[in-house]
Structures
1.
Amino acid sequence: MIIELPSTTTGTINKKLIELRETGGAVTLGRVLTLVVCTRESDNAEDVIDAANEASREHPCRVIVVTRGSRSGETHLDAEIRVGGDAGASEVVVLRLHGELADHEASVVVPFLLPDTPVVAWWPENAPAVPALDPVGRLAIRRITDATGAEDPTATIKSRLGSYTAGDTDLAWSRITYWRALLTSALDQPPHAPVVSATVSGLACEPALDVLAGWLADRIEGTVRRQTGELFAELQLANGDRIAISRPQAEMTATLSRTGQPDALVPLARRETRDCLAEELRRLDPDQIYEAALTGLSKVEYV
């Protein structure tokens, strides 16, 4: 069910939420966090809401979507309340800020934060330069960005270290969770030789591969190269063995190769935004390994 509230106020929206709770049950029961989504009024706004809804099926929450309209128009607030099948396992409050109100996201969000629950902020696009200093970011214990859609994804993911504050993360990091797991699992097999060099290859505009290279550079003593070309990650071991994961672009299955062993096919599809978001919502503590991967980016050689 979607309830439209044009040209409204935060007080009116809260009264409607209470009315829905009284007539339809305790819709806030079991909510484990508040997810605040900061985005623009754009064609992909519904995709962003859908991703948050899907993630909420694993993490029941109140989703507050703040979209900024034109700052030159009349100042007013339009809202939607979505519950039931239109809201996944959450309740969704969509706030559309117009005119001068577009510069006061945090003030509009505060009345809808659930008491005694952590706040997570997500910028699907156009994240602030320093998320922790953003007014909405100050409300959150976790701040999620996404360098993938940036104008210059590589420069954007590299800039995350300079602005890093405990609690920050980027969906480019969770997009490579399975890659990291496969590489770690392969290295756990005998003869346990150290890695002396690594190469990460793929699209130039894929920041997940940059942060994968940074993660490797932080963990090994040898050279890590990042190149443009076919999609693969390759490790050279001190004993001469080679471990590689390769996958054609847009395919769902990768090939895991290791010297002296038969190739193995492993499922490795590109992760959807909703899955990456759900993973990031599982932890509310600082991700020190992500921070280390950002630090490792400075050691990566781009060829």
2.
Amino acid sequence: MDQRLDPDPANYAFAYQLLANPDGPLARAVHALTDGGVRLTRRDIESLGCDAPAPGAATIEKAQGLVAQTQMQVEGFQDMVTAMRAETKDFGRDLAASAQAMRSSGGDGLEISRLTATMLERVRTAEERLESANREASELRTKLEEARDNARKDPLTGLPNRRAFEEAYAAQAGAGARICMAVCDVDHFKSVNDRFGHVVGDRVLKALGEALSDTCKGHLVARYGGEEFVVLFTGLDLKGAREVLDRARLAVSAKRYRLRETDAPLGEITFSAGLSPAQQGEVFGTVFHRADQLCYAAKNGGRNCVRVD
């Protein structure tokens, strides 16, 4: 394929994806774009979601596939609508011509019967196309909803991610709700990875996410990044939020984690947290920075504790 693209990593990655799956959705989308000799541009490649893949980018690749499939369905839907319009236009022209011919000849039962049969066939064809279009639209909505969900979900823990958390804060703050924000950080997490490996470290993060979600039911728990989790307490004052967060901290530290492969004890897992109430009109970054600094103070003050404003 001679597209005269620059020899950079993103374009090599794009070419590799095409060659690795020549019959896949991405290849079909590219074929549709280049039909008739049109060359791809960098903007086209970006629109298909084909930047250079990062290590372990299974989620990104899935999103790229969704982009390509969605684009193909949109193009197919547009083609179908265009064909239906042409069919309707032709039907109207034929109907007018037949009516004129009947008026000129005085008309007869056979001509009326033929015209009626033509009308019924055209209506049946239009109904089938509309039904197919409805199915396409339904599938498209499902895929777009899946893409939106994936964009707001942490792939490891299944919890909302940073983007979803910040959007939730904006929505609650805009509604004038009472808000407290907690920033939680796993204690000595680096040593867990160093001693047992990243696979075990990932299990610890998943377990911690589940424990926080179970204990903080009714409030939004998200993975903010790395070993850092955040909790958005809504409708609670600082005292109430601290009580819930302390219960979560005690529940996590009371668990006795073991290695799945050998049943050997993993040791105590704890987290430190900072908790701060949001004042009316405060933007997300201000509240987060305050809670984050309190979390650092908790870690420097001995860990496995909660510091509040």
3.
Amino acid sequence: MSNLETAPKETLCRQGPRAEDVEVLPPRDVPLGGPRAMPVRRTLPQRKRSLIGSWCFLDHYGPDLVSTSGGMKVARHPHTGLATVSWLFSGRIDHRDSAGYAVTVEPGEVNLMVAGRGISHQELSTADTTVLHGAQLWFALPDATRHMAPAFAHYAPEPVRRDGAELKVFLGSLAGSTSPVETFTPPLLAAEAMISAGAVLELDLDPAFEHGVLLDTGDLVMNGCPVAVDHLAYLPTGQSSLVLEAGDTPVRVVIIGGEPLGEQIVMWWNFIGRTHEEVVAYRAQWQAEIGVEPPADSAAAPPPLRFGPFPEGTPAPLPAPVLPNVQLRPRG
């Protein structure tokens, strides 16, 4: 399945004759893991905008009653050339990966999985989760680190309280708070902000960064531009401040940002590479490792495992979709 299905048209909100536009990107509904899987709202990538800094993917889900949605049941699947960031508002998710990490994702605690040259993992909401609500994001690794060994980090940021708001900075730096988590990419930012009804939160920004603000709940005006719930508002580089005004209901946002990656990527399914041929090779190796398709040269010695090993007794892995009958094009 493509990550770039047709979505409603984005909108622009002009702030003034000398100010940059705020670009508001609408979400599109996507089943996570298959047609009958848990629905998510995807705001990145889109046809017009593939990257915000190094950020290349943003899924937003819930609040969902697990008794109705079935919760998150994403069996083992592969990644290359990227890092996954899990951030929960409510519920819990069990993460297990082929690098040997097995952790439970908790609300307000970031889990960062760096795929590097290749990893596979599964994500299953826990049996005690009744309401699941959160976001998963990916950022692309630059060419200098995309072939590194897989890595994992966990961090619980201390809240920063100011101006009727509470911030949790889980990657990068904002509002005087800095995360210690290494990202192996050009400088980037990720934070959650809760803003009381009627409050105004003003933040200093790094003008070298692009920024995105995802509205989870509440009435929000960002830099003079109204933003609808579930939409992602984009600010280009050159902006030195962010003004978030809450209306009659409290606001929760996820703020992302980063220096432009400065590289083109080829992104398909769960793989990020630099060429069509590279992604085709990743798919072929995954299919061979899980026994779905034989290797192209069955007489040759099998290459070292890129995406394994994985413990026995776990759900069957997800096979890769069929590749499109067109050349995969670079983005960014």
4.
Amino acid sequence: MDRLVNTVRPYAWGSTTAIPELLGTAPTGEPQAEMWMGAHPGAPSRTERGPLHELIDADPVRELGERTVERFGPRLPFLFKILAAAAPLSLQVHPDLDQARAGFAAEEAAGIPIAAPHRTYKDANHKPELICALTPFEGFCGFRAPADAADLIAALGVDSLKPYVDLLHAHPEEAALREVLTALLTADPEEMAHTVAEATAAADRLGGAHAPYARLAHHYPSDPGVVAAMLLHHVRLKPGEALYLGAGVPHAYLDGLGVEIMANSDNVLRCGLTPKHVDVPELLEVVRFDPADPAVLRPEASPSGEEVYETPTDEFRLSRFVRAEGAAPNDLTAPTPQILLAVAGSPTAGDLPLAPGESVFVPAGERIQLTGAGTVFRATVAA
């Protein structure tokens, strides 16, 4: 078992205080957006034995177990994070596995460098993900019913948005959503900037259900993603609630602190709220335009006290333990690799005490018990 030293990524949308408050460290004044726990080569966790990805490369079966290597190859199949948003993240979707493989192969064959700003696929993997709120958490996820989106947009009273409202009343619903998103992303930039400015003023005046979109607009005052986000559900998570995001589901995080787990991939197709490249043709192939309620999850308790966030994804499984003082130990021995993260109290993993924000990597098959009072998240591979 290895205590992890993790990298904090200073993305501009990050909070300057949320991660330091969790870790009990002084803020630096710079944004601290994500703390990565895992073996991703972009920011691998470090241990006393060396960087985690190098330990796994040296002996994948020992670190990951035979089952994980047979299913996913000689790499940790998930990436675990603490995410702290103080400003909106880009509106985005992730491809499914077939789309990722095909897109990556096509860009490799075309000779597009991995680091090129117009490169869409960074690897050949999909990226399902789960965000679990540690504080009240806001975001946007999944398409509303088009008629509901039409009502929200119509209430702004902006003449240049009326054609989109009319389109949203067309049938079938999936075609209406596709046509509106396409029109928004291919509109004349100057005309769209004027439309977004009018919409922002109206949203500020109306408040209520329009207030979250006004907040977006103040960060991205001419971005068509502001209107595109109005096609989506606004989601508020309470601490302990989670949101599952499968392939093709458009989403954006707005504000809050949470733990996030995902398949080990960098594949992101952006729809807006970003100065980065938006590949509209590929995006329209990946987005799933079926309206659906957001997949908000609450943990399911087991007799052992483990609270599991059930998802259909094989690469990861997230659960938590909320332990009281004097509670019996939890045996966490498993045939799969694990990362344990403390977020409250003073629990002990094996013989390693954990303060909030501290984490450990547990190789497959290693015997381990969790003791002491506190809250611990457990990231591992689905059985």
